[in-house]
Design a protein that fits this description.
The chain has 25 helices and 13 strands. The chain has 634 residues and is α/β, with parallel strands linked by helices. The chain has a domain of 131 residues: Orthogonal Bundle (PCRA, domain 4), CATH 1.10.486. The strands form four sheets. A six-stranded parallel beta sheet has the order 6-13-10-7-9-8, sandwiched between helices. A three-stranded parallel beta sheet has the order 1-4-5. A hairpin with a 3-residue loop joins β11 and β12. About 3% of the residues have low confidence.
Length: 634
């Protein structure tokens, strides 16, 4: 029997079918795919606007900030791929939606529309016929740009063989549709399948399963819970998935009912103290640390909660939508690898030299950045440079490389205090050893050696902080090794990938199983899908954190209305477009968003078998802009 998990298993199965038919394919994560998309967008960034005509207007929503525009465009394309929408269908729907909307615009003076729209945006509804025509023209230009970028991305995926899971699903569906014999062979090899977490299936995945198992999904068992459809990344279609089922079995009774407590502190520090006390009491009572979870809607900014647990001697690790490459411990580890690859990346070199492992003072770092005491020496560089520059072709006597040059060759050693000089010479000697290891050892062996020699332990030996640091480094090494293997990349390529991930908006996949026993789980709600714990803390339950604020992208898309640009540009008198204000009213986008957030909150409460503690900090609001989930429990 074929067993698949919706979020990853279906994608992996589709990719395996493709690799059986075509060699040289590579599976990417979304962070890699974002880089691939930027390659497709290079003509846009270079202002090479071929194919748009002389009447094309560059004043479209979001284009004044190209970086944000591309990030928003990629988020839209990911949703379109999940919905199995092709570039041609996207452009057709966008043009048709614009024609139908502006040919017969709604009544912008409707009292219900005015009441539902904030007073500060009422000016967006005060539009003339000429203004609507102007907005229509800019909307069509926006659709054409996005269509061209969408086509370029799809073409690059097809020609390069590099694809994400969602791309693999679409490609496998097309392959099975074109090759009836291949579809029959797959169906013969896999007559029965179980799809777990079926509420997370996208329309593209449903189309793929249909291509494999037929329109009726014969032999396929879908197992899931529509109440668990809380993903903020994937465009899941739980109603469409379960509507295909010929038989339906529902569990109507809850098998556990945990005791719920509510605590609101005056400050975040008070809330952290409450969480630490509760976790400590549960552990003292005999609950294993890995059976305790501290759940957040998002773990992107939970350092204070993590530090509070670590300071109390409770090992804890964060899993979910946190960006691994922004963690302090990870940045210190990456800095050492950058020092091996390119010592003239002075941002990383300063992080290493000023960090806890070498601990140079600001005065010593300033001396290393200065010109040598004997300026004549800099005028006559060595004819043959020392071997430490071998993998670094960027050597130059220019002033902007002075720090790296002084550290490597010691031209300012006389200006350093004795202790600082000893530490610099130690770094210099270690780097020569690392360069030798770079040429002779495997990637993982090199990384382990560099970290062993150059990283300072976080906390005392065996402490919670030390354990958390080791677990974080293991996670980082696994991620770097995976990136190197999937991309067949050099050390420099891997480091550039990590740097791009740190600067990007896409975090690692939320659902990971790399946390060892003995650690309290700090997870986002999505990372806790399908898991249960003895005791749970649902933390930071306040508007803006749980639920997260609703913030629409620079442009939205509806198959009925087409493109919906948010920002008004050009000669507009209002900051928002009329169509966006109408869309928010008609689709009740904010209400639907907060209903999903409420569903995520209920799901978080249901993860506990014995005890749930719900915490927040600060004074509760009136719940107008966003609901107060904690107060609703009272």
């Amino acid at each position: 029997m074929l067993e698949l998990e919706a979020e990853r298993g279906v994608d992996a199965f589709a990719f395996s079918l493709l690799t059986s038919q075509r060699a040289g394919l590579r599976l990417l994560d979304d962070a890699h795919a974002e880089m691939l998309f930027e390659r497709a967008c290079s003509p846009l960034l270079a202002l090479e606007w071929l194919g748009f005509g002389d009447e094309f207007d560059f004043e479209v929503a979001g284009l004044r900030m190209p970086g944000r525009f591309i990030a928003a465009a990629f988020r839209l394309i990911r949703r379109l791929r999940d919905a199995a929408v092709t570039p041609a269908e996207f452009l057709s729907d966008a043009l048709r939606g614009a024609t139908e909307f502006y040919a017969k615009p709604p009544n912008f003076a409707d009292p219900a529309l005015l009441v539902a729209t904030k007073s500060q945006y009422h000016d967006s509804l005060d539009v003339t016929t000429d203004e609507l025509l102007r907005q229509r023209r800019l909307e069509i230009d926006l659709a054409k740009i996005l269509h061209k970028l969408f086509e370029a991305y799809v073409s690059l995926v097809e020609t390069s063989g590099m694809m994400t899971g969602r791309d693999a699903v679409i490609a496998a569906t097309q392959m099975l549709g074109e090759r009836a014999q291949a579809a029959a062979e797959v169906r013969e090899a896999h007559r029965v399948a179980l799809v777990d977490e079926a509420q997370d299936l996208t329309r593209a995945q449903l189309a793929f399963l249909t291509a494999v198992f037929g329109e009726q999904l014969c032999g396929v068992t879908l197992c899931g819970d529509p109440a668990s459809a809380i993903s903020t990344v994937r465009m899941a279609a739980p109603e469409a998935a379960f509507a295909r089922a010929t038989e339906r079995i529902e569990l109507l009774h809850r098998r556990r009912s945990a005791r719920v407590e509510i605590e609101r502190g005056s400050t975040v520090r008070d809330e952290c103290a409450t969480i630490v006390a509760a976790v400590r009491a549960w552990i003292d009572r005999g609950v294993a640390p890995h059976a305790i979870a501290v759940l957040f809607r998002s773990v992107e900014a939970v350092e204070r909660y993590e530090n509070a647990l670590l300071d109390a001697g409770i090992p804890a690790l964060v899993t979910g939508d946190v960006n691994l490459f922004r963690d302090r411990r990870v940045l210190n580890a990456l800095a050492l690898l950058w020092n091996v690859h390119d010592p003239f990346r002075h941002d990383w070199l300063l992080r290493t030299l000023g960090g806890p492992a070498f601990g140079l003072s600001d005065a010593s770092l300033a001396a290393l950045c200065a010109e040598p005491a004997d300026p004549q020496r800099a005028l006559f560089p060595f004819e043959e440079e020392p071997p430490s520059t071998a993998p670094t072709p960027r050597w130059s006597s220019k002033r902007d490389l002075r720090l790296g040059y002084n550290v490597l060759y010691g031209e300012c050693d006389d200006a350093l205090p004795a202790e600082a000089l000893r530490r610099v010479r130690r770094f210099r000697a270690l780097r020569l050893e690392w360069l030798e290891a770079l040429a002779t050892q495997s990637f993982e062996a090199l990384v382990r050696r560099v970290w062993r020699d150059g990283l300072a332990r976080d906390g005392e030996a065996g402490s919670a902080r030390a354990q958390a640091q080791q677990a974080m480094l293991r996670r980082l090494l696994q991620r770097l090794a995976g990136a190197r293997e999937s991309q067949r990349a050099s050390l420099g390529d891997v480091l550039e990938y990590a740097e791009r991930c740190a600067a990007g908006e896409i975090a690692p996949a939320a659902r990971t199983d790399d946390q060892p026993e003995g650690f309290v789980r700090i997870r986002s709600v999505e990372a806790a899908l399908g898991r249960e714990y003895s005791c749970v803390v649902v933390a930071d339950v306040r508007p803006g954190a749980f639920p997260l604020w609703y913030a629409a992208d620079a442009f939205l898309f509806s198959r009925q209305l087409g493109m919906i640009p948010k920002d008004n540009v050009g000669d507009a008198h209002a900051s928002r477009t009329a169509k966006f204000s109408y869309y928010m009213f008609r689709m009740k986008a904010a209400q639907q968003y907060y209903e999903r957030e409420r569903r995520a909150f209920r799901y978080a409460l249901s993860r506990a078998k014995q005890h749930v503690l719900v915490t927040a900090s600060g004074t509760p609001t009136r719940g107008i802009s966003a609901p107060e989930f904690l107060e609703e429990l009272r």
